[in-house]
């Protein structure tokens, strides 16, 4: 029986059906987007290890993928989850016990002679910070089952990305609407962003958070390990970072009359903790991807509200991809204009030859 649609209509309906079904899939899996994003990030991080073990040493792919999953769970996921839970718990504690913060603010007001803000505003800000931290950082508050599903989905995706690596890469090359050069450029941008914002930045943040915690402990700041953890997370933010921790700590010590401790915190923070950031970035820039700080900062502001803690990586990556695609668009337009100009020159040359012959 003949169809009632023309070939053009069939093509339009096929594309429409694909888009509608894809929309349902994206909406249905939107709550688990962090699992797929996390799997992609871990794949980029561990791909050199997987290649070295399976190709150079001829290890079994399934075994290597299982070992990498176990390694990422023990060395990355569980420690990061512990730090997140610790941070969320303490922020929620302070949001419910605002008297300690109000006392510190009152001392600062007495020392400076200026009223910073009303007590009600401080309580509201503290409570909002507790709620925001709970949404931003991974925790079990949202349900143990959801957490297990996200973790399992991430590891299953990561496993098949490694075991079926060739098919995965061929599928990307086949279905991505970009030329090979553009795909290669996007892949290089992904590798640089992951290296710079995961490996490099995590190392720099760990060192800065550790130094912050040790400094506060030496100069008798209460809850120094907790503030070191806060420093670790804040160190991901360029320019601001750990000064948001040791700066107020020094000022609070100064308001309490502990001038020696205050000067010590501020000197160590300004001379050692800040400069260790610049030193490590210079050492790691060429090896781990040299990403401009403005791209990182703007990407974090863009990505964190959308993707949560993974936005520290996804945000700068999206911004880098946007810049890469703009460059590709500019290059393709330039190439097309040059081809049109060459065609026009050929037509003019042919017309001149025809005129001369006449």
What report would you give on this structure?
- By secondary structure, this protein is mainly alpha-helical.
- Among the domains are: 144 residues, no CATH class; 97 residues, no CATH class.
- 84% of the residues lie in helices and 0% in strands.
- The chain has 13 helices and no strands.
- The mean pLDDT is 76.
At a glance:
By secondary structure, this protein is mainly α. The chain has helices at residues 7-29, 33-56, 61-96, 99-112, 119-136, 144-163, 165-175, 180-218, 224-234, 243-255, 259-288, 293-307, 311-357. The radius of gyration is 27 Å and the shape is extended.
Order of helices and strands: HHHHHHHHHHHHH
Globular, elongated, flat, extended or rod-shaped: what is the shape? extended
Q: Can you tell me the residue ranges where pLDDT is under 50 for at least 5 consecutive residues? A: none
Q: DSSP helix count? A: 13
